[in-house]
Amino acid sequence: MKNIKIKTGTCLRLVGFVLLIMLSANGLIAQSAAPDSSGGKHKLMQKFRAMKPVKNTFDDNYILDNQTVIVNRKKSIQFDIQHRFGVVTNGYKDFLGIFSAANIRFGMSGVPCDKLMLGWGFNKYNLTWDFDGKFALMRQSEKGKGIWPLSITAYANIAVDSRNKKNFVRGVDRLSYFGQILIARKITKNFSLQVGADVSWFNNVEAYINTKGEIIPKRNNEHFAVSVMARYKCTDKIGILINYDQPLTKHLTDNPHPNLGIGLDFTLAQHDFQVTFSNFNTLIPQINNFYNQNDYKKGSFCIGFNMSRLWYF
Question: CA distances (Å), 194 to each of 6, 20, 175, in order?
Fold first, then answer.
């Protein structure tokens, strides 16, 4: 397979440009909170403590194939069902992939304390269990109510391949990891934008033995990528979603393809349903970013959905 040339500098400039738009949109409210000569520092701290987070930057923890900056409120539990069908390129033979092999994930997450969400999931792909955590580092404040223009959230997971032990040389070969920093801004009432920087790590990567008898890995253990996501609310209950993931790391062979996704988001008080159309076909972020061989330029998209139910206590 022909290697993909990843233009890292171009991707980083794109992310920087998007961040600039997010910061400049509607003006930075931080200027209004600048300290003055008479107790200004104290007033600044009071404003910081009193700032009210902007509501509904996104309507769910997910945008298609990625996490969002959203952390549900304290003492809540969310149940997720995610589903990805096969690629649509076979056409009517498997009805656009719907009758093909599919990937499914069931997940549960809870918020034991403010800003911290913990969860777990079980995936059909390699019978993989995942355990994750998400922490809201900062939350965008409402205009005129504080000093912070962005929402920043950290996300991480660990995934365990639970197939038979004959598939692994060592127990740690079952493990993979994913970490991500998400930065978002609700630019208008209806439009929100998010960028993300992430790293994936696999303890076990495929290798080959060269003519000198040396073991040469086909891929790096680590993989870096960036993502850009957006949501536009058409009505109070319907939104349009866009997601793009660009790999940055170049491996020796089988470089992953970028991911392009579009979808619709249907939101009720405690339910969220997303119809997805993207070329990521698994439901674990490090596997998607590391191994994706579906090329959107060749029409290798997968139909799917994300469905969630939220309870408050």
Answer: 21, 12, 28
Quick check: 143 pLDDT over 60? yes
What is the per-residue pLDDT across 60-70, written as a single tens digit (0 to 9) for each?
999 999 999 99
Burial status of residue 169 (CB atoms within 10 A of its CB: 0-12, 13-18, 19 or more): exposed
d(CA 73, CA 195): 22
**Residue 47 parent element (H or E):** helix 40-50
Q: Domains along the chain?
A: 8-312 (2.40.160.40)
Nearest to 264 by CA among 223, 305, 298, 225: 305
Determine the distance from the C-alpha atom of residue 105 to the mean position of all C-alpha atoms in its chain, rounded to a whole number.
Answer: 15
Report pTM.
Answer: 0.84
Q: How many of the other CB atoms lie within 10 Å of CB of 54?
A: 20
Q: What is the pLDDT, as a whole number, of residue 131?
A: 98
Q: Is 209 helix (H, G, I), strand (E, B) or coil?
A: strand
Please tell me the distance from the alpha carbon of residue 184 to that of residue 254, in angstroms, as a whole number: 32
Q: Return d(Cα 78, Cα 165) in angstroms, integer.
A: 32
